[in-house]
Every structure is written in structure tokens, then in C-alpha cells.
Design brief:
The protein has 16 helices and 23 strands. By secondary structure, it is of the alpha/beta class. The protein folds into 2 domains: about 1-245 and about 455-475, Aldehyde Dehydrogenase, Chain A, domain 1 (3-Layer(aba) Sandwich), CATH 3.40.605.10; about 250-440, Aldehyde Dehydrogenase, Chain A, domain 2 (3-Layer(aba) Sandwich).
Length: about 475
């Protein structure tokens, strides 16, 4: 077990109160971290504010070189970081290694913007004048990140903030703070100046709320639940703080009768059960055309029943535990209420028990049928290894079911009909569409939700925009 501190102004600091970090596979304490008090919160914000001016005045090349060095250090520590990530979050080690690599790619990608943050020169209305629009950092960024991808999303926030010339105060989720703290251990060696990156730990209800209320951050970038995102937006309004929200999802997975059925089945399984279903773009509700519903379900259930659930550190494990007891009970409640409302459990449907599962937060991979569109389980984000499967009669009905939801983050469509594809691209109310393929965004694209799945977003040049603010200059000179 390790005792961690918080990373403030380039130094490690502690507070009187600490909290344990539990392994979701064993419920054992693997580390302790501080609970930030008011003094440490203000110290982190003040350090970020003080450091921003000098960091923002560095050239883009200087900032980019720091990100490249940091990425090199992550590569050198890849296996150690992945193992720690697997222990604190519960994802299989193979997935953890993938998260390290994917997260690290944001450092390298945004380092390439060292010469690409550009302004504009416009034609002036008056003689002997120049009209410029150029981009400057917003200042101090507050990043609040979830527990499901604690390393990747940390870098997703840090990299664009820093290349744009901002400083950042980052609050990881209280269940999974270790990845971000280990990332900070490499910051000094990478050449990150004191105060440019600060990591604060503690519960969102107290520490996160105090950070959000502060007038010092000029941008809050948040990934997490819809309800927390709404609360952040309300608090940020008092200081007119910019907000970027990437919130929950309820991705529909539409399977048409002309698709490659083998591909659709394997992708539906992967998309639902990746990271124990704890991914915001996961297949949350599967809609299958009635002509192929029986065959799809038989193949799908057979594939689900072959999934290996167990110790995330063991080779071959495909599904680990839920991240904490509260999340386990939430998923369990969704299934119980669905069954009470008329759904049928085809496979799974309960906590995993038996040898090796007496401790930890285990739930069986579960498939439900007999569901209706108005059921809670078809409308609310499950965020676990449970998938409801429902039939539809034609393409229009499938699109209607998919759009009938408050969420609009991601959607899937399997069909070989180009006309259906084009209609889906036009009509599906989601920020991300995966057509005849599984999940996984590209770092140079854009990841953002529609409707209650968010405002703003991450990745690519569009994800960089809210880390910069525009300044317009009217310059008159001697003719």
C-alpha cells in the first residue's frame, strides 16, 4: 500500500484527512490519498494562476517539447502504469495497456500544435489600419474527470490545456485518483514548471464543488454524468466561466436485416462489454430487425456466455468488476426493476458468485429481452455489463426508437444499404456515429454529444478551440 500526496505547485502535499483507494476486484485498500481542504484547494488555484503568465508566454515549440518528453516518460513506464490502472479501476490488464497508449497519444497529437495555433489578418475598413484576430490562452483550466478511463481522460484534458498556454487544476474521481497522481510524478522530469499542472483529490460533492465555485478558473472541462454536469453549469454561471461538458450516453445499436451478421454480433458484444460496460459510448440498447432477431439473439447470447469474467490482472480475462459497490447496486437495481416491469433475463441477471468472487463488485454479463421502449432500462444509462435487446419492424421505426431518448452521444448502425446509411447520417440525433464498426474515437476527430449528452467536447482542432480565446486588435499606423 502507498500513501499518496496531492501535486500542488510542483510539490507533494498532504492534509489531515485521507481516504482509502480500494481494489474493486478484492475490496482491499491499495493506497490512501488526501482529502483536499480549503487551504490546499486555494493553494492549487493560486499556483495555477501565478504560473500561467510565464507558461503562456513560452513559445508553442517550448510547450510542445514538454508534452513530447512527458509522452516519452509514459512509454517508459507503460507496464507499471497499466498494472496500477487495472488495480484501481478493475479493467482487464490488456484494456489498461490500451488505455495508456491511447491516452498518451493525446500528448503527442497536441504537441504537434506547437506551430499550428494561428490567428487571422482581416481587411481593414479604414486606411492605414490593420485588423487582427489572434488566439490566446483562457488562463486557468479546471478539469474534472470520471473513474472509467482515469489515465486517458486526464491526458485528454491536460494536453490541449497546456499546448494552448493554459495551466490546469485537475480533480480525478475519488475512486480512481492514482493514475493521475502517477502521471504527475513524471511532470517534473518532463520539464513541467511548478504550478502549471496541479492534481487535487477528494470527493466531488465537497472538493469538486469548491473548485467549481471559484472565480479563478476561466474554463471548466468536465466528463461525467448528466446530473453532475448540470450542477457544474449552474455553479459556473455565477462567474460566467466557460464550460465544456461531455456527459452520459445511451447508445443505440441498430442491426438491419441486410448486414454482415457475424460482424454485427461480435461488435455488439465488444461494444457492450468493453470495460465492463463502463464506457459512455457503449452499446446501451440493441435494436434488431425482426427478420433476423431470432438468429442474432442466439448468436449474441452464445458469445456473451463465453466471456471470461475474473481477476483483471490475469491473462485472458475479458470482464472485470464494477468500479465500486454503489455502481454494482445501481446496475442490479436496473435489472430487478426491468424484470418486474416484464423483461426476461436470457443470461446472467445477478451478481457473480462462487470461488474467487466472494470479495469485489462482480456482476454477470446479462442480456434482457421482452423490453419496451418506455421502460427505464431503455431510457436511462446502465453503465454496466447489461444489454436490453428489442425488435423493430422497419428502418423508420429503428431510427425512431434510437432518437427517442434524452441522450445523444453515440449511435451504431449495421447495414450494407448506402441509402439507409445516408438517411441515418442525416437523421440520427447523436454527436458520434459508428457505421459497420465498433467504438473508438480518433484523437484528431471530435468527441461531443448532442441533447443532454453535453455541450462542447474534446479532441482534434475543434476540441482545442475552447482552450483558447480570441482577441481582436485594430491597429492604426502612420501613412
Amino acid at each position: 500500500m502507498n500513501d499518496y500526496g496531492m501535486f500542488i505547485n510542483g510539490q507533494w502535499t498532504t492534509t489531515k484527512q485521507t481516504t482509502p483507494v480500494l481494489s474493486p476486484a478484492t475490496e482491499e485498500t491499495i493506497a490512501t490519498v488526501p482529502i483536499a481542504d480549503e487551504r490546499s484547494i486555494q493553494a492549487a488555484l493560486a499556483a495555477a494562476k501565478k504560473a500561467q503568465r510565464d507558461w503562456g508566454r513560452r513559445t508553442g515549440v517550448e510547450r510542445g517539447n514538454v508534452l513530447r518528453k512527458w509522452a516519452d516518460l509514459i512509454d517508459q513506464n507503460r507496464e507499471r502504469l497499466a498494472r496500477l490502472l487495472s488495480q484501481e479501476e478493475g479493467k482487464p490488464l490488456g484494456e489498461a495497456l490500451g488505455e495508456i497508449d491511447f491516452g498518451n497519444s493525446w500528448f503527442r497529437y497536441y504537441a504537434e500544435f506547437d506551430r499550428r495555433i494561428e490567428g487571422e489578418i482581416l481587411a481593414a475598413d479604414k486606411p492605414n489600419e490593420q485588423l487582427w484576430i489572434f488566439r490566446q490562452p483562457v488562463g486557468v483550466v479546471l478539469g474534472i474527470i470520471p473513474w472509467n478511463y482515469p489515465m486517458a481522460v486526464a491526458v485528454r484534458k491536460i494536453a490541449p490545456a497546456l499546448i494552448a498556454g493554459n495551466t490546469i487544476v485537475l480533480k480525478p474521481h475519488e475512486d480512481t485518483p492514482l493514475s493521475a497522481l502517477e502521471l504527475a510524478k513524471l511532470a517534473n522530469e518532463a520539464g513541467v514548471p511548478p504550478g502549471v499542472v496541479n492534481i487535487i483529490t477528494g470527493p466531488g460533492e465537497t472538493v469538486g464543488a469548491a473548485l467549481v465555485r471559484s472565480p479563478i478558473p476561466r474554463l471548466i472541462t468536465f466528463t461525467g454524468s448528466v446530473e453532475t454536469g448540470k450542477a457544474i453549469a449552474r455553479s459556473a454561471a455565477d462567474n460566467v466561466t466557460l464550460v465544456s461538458l461531455e456527459l452520459g450516453g445511451k447508445a443505440p445499436f441498430i442491426v438491419m436485416d441486410d448486414c454482415d451478421l457475424d460482424q454485427a454480433v461480435s461488435t455488439a458484444v465488444f461494444s457492450r462489454f468493453l470495460n465492463c460496460g463502463q464506457t459512455c459510448i457503449c452499446n446501451e440498447r440493441t435494436y434488431v430487425h425482426k427478420r433476423i432477431a431470432k438468429e442474432f439473439l442466439e448468436r449474441f447470447v452464445a458469445a456473451v456466455q463465453k466471456l471470461k469474467i475474473g481477476n483483471p490482472l490475469q491473462a485472458g480475462t475479458q470482464i472485470g468488476p464494477k468500479v465500486n459497490r454503489q455502481e454494482l447496486e445501481k446496475v442490479e437495481g436496473y435489472v430487478q426493476r426491468a424484470v418486474k416491469a416484464g423483461a426476461r433475463v436470457v443470461t446472467g441477471g445477478q451478481r457473480k458468485t462462487g470461488r474467487g468472487f466472494s470479495k469485489g463488485y462482480w456482476y454477470e454479463p446479462t442480456v434482457l429481452t421482452g423490453v419496451r421502449q418506455d421502460m427505464e432500462i431503455m431510457q436511462q444509462e446502465i453503465f454496466g455489463p447489461v444489454v436490453p435487446v428489442m425488435e423493430f419492424s422497419d428502418f423508420e421505426e429503428g431510427l425512431s426508437f434510437a432518437n427517442d431518448c434524452r441522450y445523444g452521444l453515440a449511435a451504431y448502425l449495421f447495414t450494407n444499404d448506402v441509402h439507409r446509411i445516408m438517411r441515418a447520417v442525416r437523421d440520427l440525433e447523436f454527436g458520434e456515429l459508428y457505421i459497420n464498426r465498433g467504438p473508438g474515437e480518433s484523437i484528431h476527430a471530435f468527441h461531443g454529444g448532442w441533447k443532454q449528452s453535453g455541450a462542447g467536447g474534446d479532441d482534434g482542432r475543434h476540441g482545442l478551440e475552447h482552450y483558447l480565446q480570441k482577441k481582436t486588435v485594430y491597429l492604426r499606423y502612420q501613412g
